[in-house]
Amino acid sequence: MAVVRAQNEASVLAAAGSVKASRYRWRICALLFFATTINYVDRQVLGVLAPDLQRIIGWNELQYSYIVAAFQGAYAFGLLFMGGVIDRVGARIGYALAIGLWSLAAMSHALVHTAVGFGVVRFFLGLGESGNFPAAMKTVAEWFPRKQRALATGIFNSGSNIGAIVAPLTVPWIAVHLGWRWAFLFTGFFSAAWIIGWLSVYQRPPRIEDESEELATRVPWASLIQHRQTWAFLVGKVLTDPIWWFFLYWLPKFLNARHGLSLIELGPPLVTIYAMADLGSITGGWLSTRLLKLGWSANRARKSTMLLCALLVVPIVFVPNVSNVWAAVALIGLAAAAHQGWSTNLFTITTDMFPGRAVASVVGIGGFGGTFGSMFISTFIGMLLQFTGSYVPVFMLAGSAYAVALLCIHVLAPRLEPARVD
């Protein structure tokens, strides 16, 4: 009887501990969500202010593309080593260091007044912000069991859309009433404040129930590049990341040039687009999680969701020919939602194919490729607009990229089988 009672008490304590751990991991997810939100507010300020800053500072379309490329170049190369640094020092310290750097860089925008100056501070902003997704995905791999990772990723990834919503709601008001420099100061301050919350709340996770590997053992990224699974994620990022960068940096300019929207008038259309993207991020994570619960394999659930997202992007090819601004917003919003649903599952397949100790490095490699490719697309867009003023080729590229990317992923990782990482 005493043995049975002791066993019952142990079971109750274990259940209580499991509930406590479950609640805590969702608090961690909330912190990841807020970090990603701030990340996108900081990078989106320039895109929102671009039509006015182009007149104030005096840069042309090609110079603007170089400013964007400076951020992307630093972001790309930062991802190469940030993933390894975060795998080595851990998510707690690595995340804090990354956000500290990008906070200082964001506020430094208020000190510059030339195109070259903007290029320099954008470089350091990109370097700091490159730590966000490797750190977030490592945290998800450490704290969440496999069946909950897509949903957790969808939730924190939705912060990118919330950030893109917050920026057009607040930045124009700040710029009009206080001056454009204050917009950069305010957003940089919030990223610095997040560090305090992260360091006071985050703690090293216990080993979760369905992961047996030692998460602290770092895997060199050079050895990961040998695996087809790494290339599957890398190719997916290279082909689709440039589309999201286009949304972030050129949508305000497109709406201004094609539909004549002023800085204040840009708010409602951009908020609508990114609210739709936010819904797409969470829905994409929910759908593949739901399919897993119905008994589908991870391979079938992730790829079916990604196929649906790829098809939903296709109608964006009609945007340049739409004369009604809200019809254009609806098509762009649908594509943005589909991109975020796609992105959620693309990030999650890294946790399906790699042990937790390698996830941040794999995400870093893929992010490097995606952002490095985006540099060339940004320069191409700048040259295209400088000499032709036409957005048609860009929207045609966006409509086809996801289907091609999914085909490549399926060829490289037909079953999303786990990589044999030593």
3D architecture notes:
By secondary structure, the chain is an all-alpha fold. Helix content is 82%, strand content 0%. It has 15 helices and no strands. It has helices at 2-57, 61-89, 91-108, 115-129, 132-143, 146-157, 159-178, 180-201, 221-224, 228-259, 267-293, 298-313, 325-353, 356-387, 392-412.
Output the keywords.
15 helices, Growth Hormone, Chain: A, globular, 422 residues, mainly alpha
Overview in brief:
With 422 residues, this protein is mainly α. It has 15 helices and no strands.
Query: Which CATH top level class fits?
Result: Mainly Alpha
What average pLDDT do the residues reach?
Answer: 85
* Form type: globular
The helix/strand series, from N terminus to C terminus, equals HHHHHHHHHHHHHHH
Total beta-strand segments? 0
Find the CATH superfamily.
MFS general substrate transporter like domains
- The number of distinct structural domains comes to 1
Q: Report how far the terminal alpha carbons are from each other.
A: 47 Å
Category by helix and strand content: mainly alpha
Contiguous low-pLDDT stretches (5 residues minimum) are 1-17, 209-216
Q: Proportion of β residues?
A: under 5%
Radius of gyration: 21 Å
Largest β sheet strand count, sense and barrel closure:
none
Instruction: Tell me the CATH topology.
Output: Growth Hormone, Chain: A
How many helical elements? 15
CATH architecture: Up-down Bundle
Helix content: over 70%
